[in-house]
Amino acid sequence: MTAVIETSGLTKRYRRVTALSDCTVSVPQGRISALVGSNGAGKTTLLRLLAGLAAPTAGRAVVLGGEPRQDPAYLAEIGFLAQEIPLYRRRTAQDHIGIGAHLNPRWDGESVRARLAGLKIPLDRPVGTLSGGQRAQVALALTLAKRPGLLLLDEPLAALDPLARRNFLGALAEAGAGGGLTIVLSSHLIADIERVCDHLILLAESRATLCDDVETLLAEHRVLTGPRKDTTAIARAHTIVREDTTARQTTLLVKLNGPVIDPAWVVEEANLEEIVLGYMSQDDAGYGTGPEAAPLSAVGGDR
Amino acid sequence: MIRFRVDGRSAVPPYLQIVQQVRQALRMGVLAVGDQLPSVREVVAATVVNANTVLKAYRDLEREGLVEARAGQGTFVRARPPGPPPGTHSRLGRALAVWVRQARAAGLDDEAIESLLRVTLQASAQEDIA
């Protein structure tokens, strides 16, 4: 399957701050990819680099076969929705459809009307008077009207209430259902996006520590629980992502390298949140610096 | 038409929840042979899951021979899962409800009832093997 996003060693430095360093990720076509990581991990920087809004200091990105750049042919393929939903508050959705038609070579204004009608969002009211959830839906519908090949969304859920979040994710999952559109969305809300996303990129301290299909990540990670004991045997056969030890008990998040044979361990499936938190907390624990820790797994195979 | 409910906190993966709900609807008679399943797009919008999750569920059901995809039309029920005819479940369900009331009256809580059921199922499975 072809990759829509392919970066290698992508790095962005602002004066003294390294916002993104040596970031190598790949996203196959048609995926809905969750971009997660703590604040300041480089999520917005990566999205801006992919959207052509910033230029890398080092490394390279190839998006839809070309390098991100500020030119109409490239930008026509990219839908980018910034965190602070960029709409003219005094203008109506109908006005925005007109503006979009003016600015975009390919423009499906009818799809915006149909989407908003389906959501019962009025076209003739200033968008500033709509609810936050409705505004987000207007912005999403407008971005999709470009018929982009790649949709990049920076924290689209942050300002939405639970119902608006669910509706927005529903619209997003529906947009991705055709299979042609690739979507990357950054978010802190793993539990919310887990069902919609089938791919995940985790940034920690400006590096990509995970990039794979969700199915693959779930298949290759397990939570091991057992009496407090030496973990060297496990560490020899598998990769311990995170270790929690109390006086009596040891809990491990492990990246498997085969079956766990030792019957002293209770082996359970890990959910996506446990995996993400396990890798994120590696930074706190001072792991993640060695060559072995936090391996960047290869991009998942075809399905 | 059937409506799916996907519980994100369940230990059962979302695609399997959809498979189980179709099987369940067939057993209970909610779905009959010839009925159409909702389109992938409809399920995705209603349950907020990834389209691949729905496709995987429908493929599984197709492999089981329960549904068939007709090009350009959608997915339709082809057969009922093997097992007793509809009605059997509700009859047994009523008998079980009587038993559950007895168990509660005897002071068993839900957890005790569940573990009793599990042990009984395991014991009867072993009898079948023996």
Structure description:
The complex is a heterodimer of chains A (303) and B (130). Chain A has two domains: 3-214, P-loop containing nucleotide triphosphate hydrolases (Rossmann fold), CATH 3.40.50.300; 216-285, no CATH class. In chain A, 31% of the residues lie in helices and 28% in strands. Chain A has helices at 43-50, 72-75, 93-103, 109-118, 132-145, 162-176, 190-193, 214-220, 232-237, 272-285; strands at 3-14, 17-23, 26-28, 32-36, 58-63, 78-81, 150-154, 182-186, 199-204, 207-213, 221-227, 239-245, 249-255, 266-269. Chain A has a six-stranded mixed beta sheet, sandwiched between helices. In chain A, strands 1, 2, 3 and 5 form a four-stranded antiparallel beta sheet that branches. In chain A, strands 12-13-11-14 form a four-stranded antiparallel beta sheet. In chain A, strand 9 (199-204) and strand 10 (207-213) form a beta hairpin. The longest helix of chain A is centred in the middle third of the chain and has 15 residues, at 162-176. The termini of chain A are close together. The model of chain A is unreliable at 286-303 (pLDDT under 50). Chain B is mainly α. In chain B, strands 1-2 form a two-stranded antiparallel ribbon. Classes of the chains: A alpha/beta (303), B mainly alpha (130). At the A-B interface, helix 6 of A face helix 2 and helix 3 of B.
